[in-house]
Structures are given as C-alpha cells and as structure tokens.
Specification:
Blueprint (H helix, E strand, L loop, with lengths): L3 H6 L1 H11 L5 H37 L5 H33 L19 E6 L10 H7 L3 E2 H7 L6 E2 L2 H19 L3 E3 L4 E3 H7 L3 H5 L3 E4 L12 E5 L4 H6 L4 E4 L5 E10 L18 E11 L4 H19 L3 E5 L11 E9 L4 E10 L3 H6 L1 E5 L2 E4 L1 E9 H11 L7 E2 L5 H4 L3 E2 L1
Parallel strand pairs: 4-9, 8-14
Antiparallel strand pairs: 1-11, 2-3, 5-7, 6-7, 9-10, 10-16, 11-12, 12-13, 13-16, 14-15, 17-18
The structure holds one RNA strand.
RNA sequence: GCCAGGGUCGCCUAGAGGUAGGGCGGCAGCCUGCUAAGCUGUUUAGUCAGAAAUGGCUUUCGAGGGUUCGAUUCCCUCCCCUGGCGCCA
C-alpha cells in the first residue's frame, strides 16, 4: 500500500516534482496530519498493550480459580478509553488515505513544465504528410455506408456508432494484426473482464476519473434491496490497461518472472464528460471503442527501458500501416497524476491538415503498484513493480487515420498492405 | 438463483473461545570435499526508541460489524473459490 512512510522516505523528490508541476497538492497538510495520526497511534498502542497484559492476567487468575470480577470492571474503563481514541483516528486517516490516493506521481526529469497541451513537445516525425484530401473521414465513411452515427444516436445517443460491411472486417483485421505483431514479440494476449470493482479501480487511475471517465453499473440484490442492503457497483473499463494492472493486485511476484508483458484486447467505455463540443461527429471520439493495449510489469530499474520499447512498438505499428505520425512528449499540464512520463503518437489527418492523437504510452512507475499492492521479491528484498501501459492499436481511432490516408480520388479506400492478408481484398469501394 | 463445503504468513496445511503450530520455497548464518544435504535463525504491516545493528509495542487467519475480560474459533452482512441442482449463449 501507499503509506505516509513512503512519502516521508521520498519527501524531497515528491516536493521537487510538485513544485515543477506548480501543483496545489496539499503536501504540508498531509505531513501535519500524519504527525498527529502517529502520535495518537502511539498513545493507542500503549493502551492496547495494557489491555492485552491485563487480559492475560485475567486468564491466569481464572485458571487458578480466583475472583476476576473487579479486574473485569477496571478493564471496562480502559476499554472505553480505547474506543474513544479509536473513534478519533478516522478523522485523520480518512483524509490521509484520500490524499495518498490522489497524490501525483513523481515526474521523470525529462518532463517539461507547461500549462496545457499547447506546450507539449514534438520529439520526432515519420513519413511524408503531403497528401491532401477535400473530404474528411467523418463524411466519407457515412457516405460510403461504412459508419452510421445517426441511427446509433437514435438507439444509444450521441458519440455512438454502427460500423458496417467491410469496415467491420477492417476493424477486426486491425485488431488481429496488432495482436499478431505483439504476440510475436513475446507479449501474452489477454482478454480481461470488462467491468471492475471500485476498490481496485481506485488503484489504477485518479479519483477524478470516476466522475469524468467511468460508467458505473449497479447490481442490486433484488431480494434484499428492501432490507437496505447496499447495492454492489461495478465500473465499465475505460481501457484494458486497468484490468491488466488490477490482475496482479495484492500479489508478490518473483523477480525472475519479470518482466510480465501482456497485450490486452477489449472494448473501452468512456463518458467523455468535459469534452462537449470536441470532435462530436463521426467515430473519432466516442463512448465505446475497441483497443489493443500493451501492458508491462517490471523491476523498478527496468521501467525506462521498457517504456522506450512500447513507444517503439507503437511506431512500428504505424510505420507498417504507412500512416505518417509524430511523437509528442506530454508537458506537466497534460500528463495527469498517474504517469511519471507520457508520450503520444499523433497520426496525420490530411483533411484537417494536422496531426491527431492516435496512441498514448505512460510509465506509471510505482504509482499503480503502490495502490494495488503489487510487489516483487528480489533475493529477499521486496520492491514495488513498475507498470507501463501503451496503446498498440486503438481500433476506431486508427480506422479514421486509415480512411483519410488511404482514401482514393474515385471514392474508394485502399487497404494497407499489411492488412490485405487479413481482409482478403485490397480495397473497399 | 438454491443447497453444501471452503478462504489461515510467498505456497501448502493444522488449530474449533485463552492470544497462530508444522512443512515447502526464499533469504541470512553455521557446518560438511564433492550430483548436495543437515542444523539455526528469519520470512504481514505499522509505530516508538536508536546514527546504526537491534529492541519494545501494536496489528494481521477473505472484508466489515457484533457478542466476550479475551474471537482464527460463536453471531450478522458482504466478497470470492469449489462441488451439486436450476437456468442458459
């Protein structure tokens, strides 16, 4: 678990990182609360020790057939004192736990300060983004009958879609292509649960995401709901990263089994609260999409090596697809609290004449493992694993990029060469 | 959904109101000329003292509550696993 002990041991690093972010995280409040909590805890432990001693004495007296009534009465007073003290502790520990869960990760030294996404940094480009088209993917796909968002709106609301015909086959081809590439690299394919319990979900992402990003599902126990039994709640996953991280919660892994490399495939469900007015048409930003996701658990000293690896995998994937892209490093204003460093790939969209986000890779270092309690044993020493997540292919996003970059003048769409074996044809008309 | 059994330290397993025992694995040490074994210690988390080695205390038997001087053990709620029945792509 993440503890105040961890914070005390790393306080200089944490403070420096918060300063760099210009974060208003109340680190001093946390430290103050922790000091109060510890002094109360010490007092409580002394009382408990006394109670235990007396209890054992009563045990021996009883065995000897002595009268224990007076002793029990005096213990009752001590018990009251303990109960009262225990009741004050949550005042501190609840707030401490909230602050610990929401504490931003310590940034990698290479991350630059920036107020928002406009200050992200382009580190390299690939491909030739000279192609220009008049009609964007949104209009083109509707016109070709490959996507139907109007009927989807009727059935499920805005930001939903039907894929149709060859586009469904193309979507599945992309998915299988990505799985095959990753499996060949030694990543184990995983199809995770699509819903998760709250307690585990709070370990993989920021608490703010519960309101903004996640859909929740009530599972009322019908027979017992009248008795006031609380209903169980599950959260729809926003990415396969989350159930893959939670998969090893409360486990102690053996260092010799690391790294563990997974490639997950799942639908992703996102409320997209707070994105009103952004990309409202088409399938670029939707409430439900499919994604193939890379996930690695590794030793703490290896995570930056594997972070580079997953970004390289993303680049290879887009190079194979022949889609021009650039690599962007997130600044402090766009990185969130979970990642220590985050890198996106942005693919070229000819109709918009600009690059748009198509993948995202994060090194979360020990942020998730501290909260999910995922350790590894390295020759008797225990450490928290580092976790890395990265898109392999986000299907619907990639489909829009393919549609734009492979659109032909005659209104057809060519199939990227690597997908032809999966599709069994070279173009969609 | 119903019935039955179960969840004990990294893994396995005992304990059925008196403060968690054994085995395996890991780690540390000792011992022994040899495919390795044996012996001893250690192996939940937190907190206090200490520069540290270390020591004290608290906590920990799926989670939370209750009864009790005292709960792994009894009671209640919930989660999960296994088996059987029912339902079912």
């Amino acid at each position: 678990m993440i503890t105040t002990r961890y914070v005390r041991d790393h306080i200089d690093m944490i403070k420096a990182s918060l300063t760099k972010r210009k974060s208003d995280y109340p680190i001093d409040e946390l430290i103050g609360l922790d000091e109060s909590w510890r002094s109360l805890t010490t007092k409580l432990q002394e009382l408990q020790a006394q109670k235990n001693r007396e209890s054992i004495e009563i045990s021996t007296m009883k065995k000897n057939g002595e009268d224990i009534r007076d002793r029990i009465a005096s213990l009752a007073k001590l018990k009251e004192e303990i109960t009262a003290l225990e009741a004050t502790l949550p005042t501190y520990s609840d707030r401490i736990n909230y602050l610990l869960l929401s504490m931003p990760n310590t940034l990698h030294e290479s991350v630059k300060y920036g107020a928002d996404e406009n200050f992200n940094i382009e580190v390299r480009k690939w491909g030739a983004p000279e192609k220009a088209i008049d009609i964007g993917h949104t209009e083109l796909l509707e016109k070709m009958g490959l996507v139907d968002t109007e009927r989807a709106a009727k059935v499920a609301g805005a930001r939903f879609y039907y894929l149709k015909g060859d586009f469904v086959l193309l979507a599945k081809s992309l998915e299988r292509f990505a799985l095959d590439v990753m499996a060949k690299k030694g990543y184990t394919p995983v199809q995770p649960p699509y819903m998760m319990k709250r307690e585990l979900y709070s370990g993989v992402t920021s608490l703010g995401d519960f309101g903004e990003m996640l859909y929740s599902i009530g599972r009322p126990k019908e027979a017992k709901i009248e008795d006031g039994a609380k209903e169980e709640e599950l959260f729809m996953i926003a990415t396969a990263e989350h159930p893959m991280a939670a998969m090893h919660a409360n486990e102690i892994l053996n260092a010799k089994d690391l790294p563990i490399k997974y490639v997950g495939v799942s639908p992703c469900f996102r409320r997209e609260a707070g994105t009103h007015g952004k990309d409202t048409k088409g399938i670029f930003r939707v409430h439900q999409f499919d994604k193939v996701e890379q996930f690695i658990l590794c030793k703490k000293e290896d995570s930056w090596k594997y972070f580079e690896e997953v970004v390289r995998n993303e680049e290879e994937m887009f190079q194979s697809l022949g889609i021009p892209y650039r690599v962007i490093e997130m600044c402090t204003g766009d990185i969130g609290i979970v990642a220590a460093k985050k890198v996106d790939l942005e693919g070229w969209f000819p109709s918009q004449k600009r690059y748009r986000e198509v993948t995202s890779a994060s090194n979360c270092t020990d942020w998730q493992s501290l909260r999910l309690d995922i350790k590894y044993d390295d020759k008797g020493e225990r450490h928290y694993v580092h976790t890395i997540n990265a898109t392999a292919i986000s299907i619907e996003r990639a489909l829009t990029a393919v549609a734009e970059n492979y659109a032909n003048r005659d209104g057809s769409i060519s199939i990227p060469e690597v997908l032809i074996p999966y599709m069994g044809k070279s173009r969609i008309a």
